[in-house]
Design a protein that fits this description.
S8 family serine peptidase, Peptidase_S8/S53_dom, 15 helices, Peptidase_S8_subtilisin-like, 635 residues, serine protease, five-stranded antiparallel sheet, protease, seven-stranded parallel sheet, 20% strand, alpha+beta
């Protein structure tokens, strides 16, 4: 059996004042324990009472939507949950952004409009994203052709803001000179273009990100050529512009394309397919992740990646910036559900025991850097077919429930919960509760946050956070290594300095990866159609394991785009890798995707542990050695 997920228990001092509300491990005074337990019991009992009293229409809504409505209507409920925030954003006009799963997109879209809502996107398969009045939720959810109404799925790009002084200096330079990514030299792409006579000519590389707001500005400055933007898919933001500049720096004669990934998850999947079918893109790269992409099964975005790679496209995706177990920066935990021998006050169901030893620990504490971060919970049921009901709770140091996700899973729902850490305060901790059903393998992720030791609580985290479409079987999941100056701020207070890159030299075996780069491996339990890979075994010994991330590429590089000077994160690494692939394909236009993969992987410079490792994959790719491995002859 391949061991890919090792639980790490480590003690990192953090004065957050958290206390464990179970027997035998609290050092607090009894009166404090009693008061905290009373607050926990009142809050969780109130939330679980809601779960037990749902109307037929409310059973189709996420728990956050239901709780938000009830809190607004019931002052006595609000008194039991004084520190609670549903996480649902309600506009001044009283609307919420929602995703609606239906069987008839146009009929539901018309109903949304009739209810005073605005349709943002409607797909042919019935997925509708809309801004809907909170007061209209029950009417829409109560329709026979509606299966689910939930807050609009959130997404992130994987860029990191670094040293502001450095950005300001680069911004001044950009006025006078064209910016060139330091990754061009660090990957040896500059010399490879001359040695092998390659430039990306004849290859179309397309980007999916947030938007290209300053595309015209970059073109006017000579930073970019013409870019083929899918009709109506320009998006909003500028990370896409920065990614395009990187590709153009390394593969200056490649044709470029773009589409936004931010309209909705269904739109993201549709745009992946459209870039291949309509845009004729040979290489596609993205830096986006939706929070509800399953780690255990290829869902809609990963399925779109599978479709375009099966059609011959090369696909590159950011591995993520959620940290890794090797550097102690992980905010991720996965493992078999372990029934706790102790209870959490007010809870119906069984808490998960994070501690594999004889000590019981029902909570995992969160770092100060986790403020405002989303926390997701998945378990090993098939997508859309979960009959085992798990819930997620976030508590503060005084025992109050501050956020939760308690969707009902009765056989036709997703094995997924999400809640958000408050943006202020301290002493937060997470609990996972099996409300009903069978034990499953669970995945808990505080996205871009961290699990830490706090008081009597030990920190439990694992490797394996890279997931979703970046872990699709034929995608290249790309980790990050700095090309030039170090990332300019500590990831969390008290962290060691971040590594610097080799520029103006080349990457070598002694180069370091970014401490925030997400790790693998990725265990999956289901095929894309929901059939089990190992029927009857969806535990840590079942399923299949994918070696992700695949490769490493440069970040921390110059662009002319405001806010990306320099451009850090796996968002910057993925376009470097895509551009190097474009050089290979221009050097050998008949090369197959399998041949390109072999050339990149076999010639990569090994970093970290010998061979494949869970942070950098097979290592940092280099343009010249990859061209040679592909059999391209020097000119």
């Amino acid at each position: 059996m391949v061991r890919f997920s090792r639980v790490a228990a480590h003690a990192v001092p953090l004065t957050v004042g958290a206390m464990l509300l179970t027997t035998g491990v609290s050092a607090a005074q009894p009166s404090m324990v009693d008061a905290a337990a009373a607050r926990t019991e009142a809050g969780i009992s109130a939330l679980q009472s809601i779960k037990k009293s749902l109307s037929p229409a409310e059973r189709k809504q996420s728990s956050q939507l239901v709780v938000e409505k009830r809190l607004r209507a019931d002052r006595s409920l609000a008194a039991k949950l004084p520190d609670y925030r549903s996480g649902v954003g309600v506009s001044n006009a009283g609307t919420v952004s929602v995703d609606i799963v239906s069987s008839r997109d146009q009929a539901v879209a018309n109903a949304v409009k009739a209810a005073g809502g605005t349709v943002r996107y409607a797909s042919p398969d019935g997925a509708v994203r809309a801004d809907l009045p909170l007061s209209a939720l029950d009417a829409i959810a109560g329709r026979g052709d509606v299966a689910e109404v939930k807050p609009a799925a959130q997404a992130t790009t994987w860029s990191e803001s670094g040293n502001r002084d450095f950005r300001a200096a680069l911004a001044k330079q950009a006025v006078a000179a064209t910016q060139v990514s330091e990754g061009d030299k660090a990957h040896g792409a500059d010399t490879a273009r001359t040695t092998y006579g390659v430039s990306g000519a004849g290859v179309k590389v397309c980007v999916l990100s947030d938007g290209v707001d300053s595309l015209a500005k970059s073109q006017a400055a000579g930073e970019l050529p013409a870019v083929d933007v899918l009709s109506g898919q320009k998006g909003s933001g500028d990370e896409g512009t920065a990614m395009l500049e990187i590709i153009h720096d390394l593969a200056p004669n490649a044709t470029l394309g773009f589409a936004t990934a931010f309209t909705s998850e269904a739109s993201f999947a549709a745009n992946i397919r459209a870039l291949r079918s309509t845009g004729k893109c040979q290489i596609i790269v993205d830096d986006v992740s939706y929070f509800d992409e399953s780690p255990f099964q290829d869902t809609q975005v990963a399925q779109a990646v599978n479709d375009v790679t099966a059609a011959g496209a090369l696909y590159f995706s950011s591995a993520g910036n959620s940290g890794n177990a090797t550097d102690g920066t992980s905010g991720y935990y996965e493992g078999d559900f372990r029934a706790s021998s102790s209870k959490i006050s007010g809870v119906t169901g069984t808490p998960h025991d994070f501690d594999p030893s004889s000590t019981t620990q029902n909570f995992d504490a969160l770092s100060a850097g986790s403020l405002g971060r989303p926390v997701t919970l998945f378990w090993s049921d098939p997508w859309g077919k979960s009959a085992n009901d798990y819930d997620l709770f976030i508590l503060n140091s005084s025992g109050s429930v501050v956020a939760s996700s308690e969707n009902a899973q009765t056989g036709s729902q997703n094995p997924y919960e999400i809640a958000s850490v408050p943006t202020s305060g301290s002493g937060y901790k997470v609990a996972v509760v099996k409300y009903s059903g069978a034990d499953r393998f669970i995945a808990l992720n505080v996205i871009r946050g961290r699990f830490v030791a706090s008081g009597s609580l030990k920190a439990f985290s694992t490797n394996g956070v890279t997931n979703g479409h970046s872990a699709a079987v034929n995608a290249f999941s790309v980790a990050a290594a700095p090309a030039a100056a170090a990332f300019g701020r500590p990831l969390e207070t008290g962290d060691p300095a971040n590594p610097a890159g080799p520029y103006p030299g080349l990457f070598t075996a002694s180069s370091k990866w970014e401490r925030f780069s997400s790790d693998g491996k990725r265990r999956l339990f289901y095929n894309a159609d929901g059939t089990a890979i190992t029927p009857g075994n969806v535990s840590s010994t079942g399923g299949t394991v994918r070696n992700k991330p695949d490769i490493t590429a440069a970040d921390g590089v110059a662009t002319s785009v405001s806010g990306f000077q320099p451009f850090f994160g796996t968002s910057a690494a993925a376009p470097h890798a895509a551009a190097i692939a474009a050089l290979l394909l221009s050097g050998k236009p008949t090369a197959t995707p399998a041949q390109i993969r072999t050339a990149l992987v076999s010639s990569a410079i090994d970093l970290g542990a010998p061979g494949f490792d869970t942070v950098t994959g097979t290592g940092v790719i280099m343009a010249g050695p990859a061209l040679a491995a592909l059999g391209v002859q020097p000119k």
